[in-house]
Fold:
Amino acid sequence: MRTHVADHPLIAHKLTALRDERTSSPEFRRLADELVTLLAYEATRHIRVEPITVRTPVALAEGVAIANPKPLVVPILRAGLGMLEGMMRLLPNAEVGFLGMVRDEHSLLASTYAERIPKDIAGRQVYMLDPMLATGGTLVTAIRMMLDRGATDVTAICLLAAPEGLQRVDDEFDGAANVTIVTAGLDERLNEHGYIVPGLGDAGDRLYGTV
Ligand code: URA
Structure:
């Protein structure tokens, strides 16, 4: 597994504003959207392209286009939905699948309640959107589903990650699979409720105004 923690002052600035408990839901959504676009730039560093030739007003130019089969973008509901627009801004022709997962507040175990993902994604590059990599349970289940369906590589974009979650994903996919985590920040730890510390609270609640 590869981990990339963004190291850019603009990303750090927006992440700090996102964390601030005084940030309103509309502002939180806007910042999350912008952060994802910035992270997507890094996350797509190894996106497959194929050579093409275009005619400029002056001459022929050799270039590239995103290769087929198209990448698949999968937001993990609910909070991952708040990251979709920011991702699609950079990959407007990607296919979108949906995965609904919920974490039990007591056991912290993740279960799937909705799924619209093609059964066969052989040879596809998958970009998963999940704002908070906390215990890692949700992401491990989601990444396993993509690899079982034939994805060649899976990149998860997370706004924040906890060391415990990164470790769990690394233990699960150590070496064998092509799994990458791209995050705007690596925080200190999880608390006894499975929240990232210092984190930003419940990402879904903050996105959708339920606080
Ligand atoms: N999910 C969240 O929304 N926040 C956390 O800190 C952990 C999981």
